[in-house]
Amino acid sequence: MSHVRLNTELTFVYAVHAAVSTGLLEGLARGAVPQELDPGVVDRVLDVLASRGWVRHDEGGWVVAPWLVGAGPFDIGRMAGILGHTDRALRDGGTVMRGEVRHTADVVRGLARMLARPAEHLARELGPCGGTVVDVGCGAASWSLAMLGNDPEARVVGLDRDTVLVGARAEAVERGLAARFTGLPGSFWETPFPRARRVVLANVVHLLGPTAGAALVARCAAALEPGGELVVVDVLEGRPHDADVAAYALQLRLREPTGTVHTAETVGHWCADAGLGVTRVIPLRADIAGLAALVAQSSTTNPSRT
Ligand SMILES: C[S@@+](CC[C@H](N)C(=O)[O-])C[C@H]1O[C@@H](n2cnc3c(N)ncnc32)[C@H](O)[C@@H]1O
Predict the structure, then answer these.
(1) CA-wise closest residue to 279 among 214, 196, 198, 195
(2) Which ligand 1 atom sits nearest the alpha carbon of residue 138?
(3) Which residues line ligand 1 (CB under 6 A)?
(4) What is the Cα–Cα distance from 109 to 140, expressed in whole angstroms?
């Protein structure tokens, strides 16, 4: 990289930081530049953001790009709230305060919209299971509700915090699937899992270190009927130095002391330790690099271990 390019890159980073921390972007998203900011500097900062398409100038003044606005996990205010802790975390290894990152019904419904296409793809790849699907840490239950679409005999039990289940129920109602969705409020460490033909564990193991990840996979495995399957969805095929994967891994670490990206190989070992055989890894076409589903089956002959 040339020094001029380095200067441009750094300027962009600091311009974004300032636009977020001063409320400039949020103000613009609501239709007005905050009055206390210096108008001349505002224009220079916004010119820098405009160079990457984050904002544009039209007859009415500055407007933010539509993709910068909105709730969901990648809402810029939420992301900045997490990333703003990077320097502190570097010094003391700490994480973001719980309340700042806890998934809310809004955040998980934003996630559901992002995951709609890969969820449909996974449902088609897996085919019907004809029984109970337990969705552990279900969020808005994107993955399991998509599975109901091509599986008329199946029903979903979604396990998550009660505040999050509000979002899952709303999704189920919106898709006309409320009669086949049951919310099970509680912690996946304490709440007994119902017997399942299929257990979905999506975007949860990235919150856990290896010991807890293996323990949760074992809990899921123990709930499976003979011949049932565990489906673990996560960034399982990410290369650590891919820009998206490196950014994701840093954000996970800022959120949880054990937050990290695990490989399909690691999760496969946890499954084997829990008595499951990995049958396949399905790459998921998604904006999130390396997102994949690992499918592991319990033996058809093993008696239940619950
Ligand atoms: C990143 S979200 C994934 C949501 C969903 N599975 C998906 O892929 O869209 C992680 C979810 O795990 C839930 N979660 C985290 N710890 C939990 C616990 N101990 N018990 C139950 N749910 C938990 C969170 O509330 C959140 O909804």
Answers:
(1) 198
(2) 6
(3) 103, 108, 111, 115, 137-140, 142-143, 160-161, 164, 187-189, 202-204, 207
(4) 6
Atom of ligand 1 lying closest to residue 204 CA: 10
Token code pair at residue 192: 């007994």
Q: Which residue, among 193, 220, 239, 207, has the nearest Cα to 295 in the 3D structure? A: 220
- Which of 156, 138, 139 lies closest to 147, judged by CA? 156
Strands 224-235 and 277-283: unpaired
* Domain 105-297, CATH: 3.40.50.150
Spatial separation of the C-alpha atoms in residues 124 and 99, rounded to whole Å: 36
pLDDT digits (tens, 9 = 90+) for 20-42: 899 999 899 888 899 999 999 99
Distance CA 289, CA 243 (A): 9
Q: In angstroms, rounded to a whole number, what is the distance separating the alpha carbons of residues 154 and 132?
A: 6
pTM above 0.85, yes or no: yes
Strand order in the sheet with 155-160: 181-185, 155-160, 132-136, 196-202, 224-235, 291-297, 277-283
Q: Identify the pLDDT of residue 303.
A: 52
Count CB atoms within 10 A of the CB of residue 300: 9
What would the pLDDT profile of 186-202 be if each residue is shown by its tens digit?
999 999 999 999 999 99
Rounded to an integer, what distance in angstroms lies between the CA atom of residue 69 and that of residue 111? 14
The domain segmentation of the chain, as residue ranges, is 3-68, 105-297
Mutate-to-test residue for ligand 1 from 159, 161, 190, highest number of ligand atoms within 8 A of CB: 161
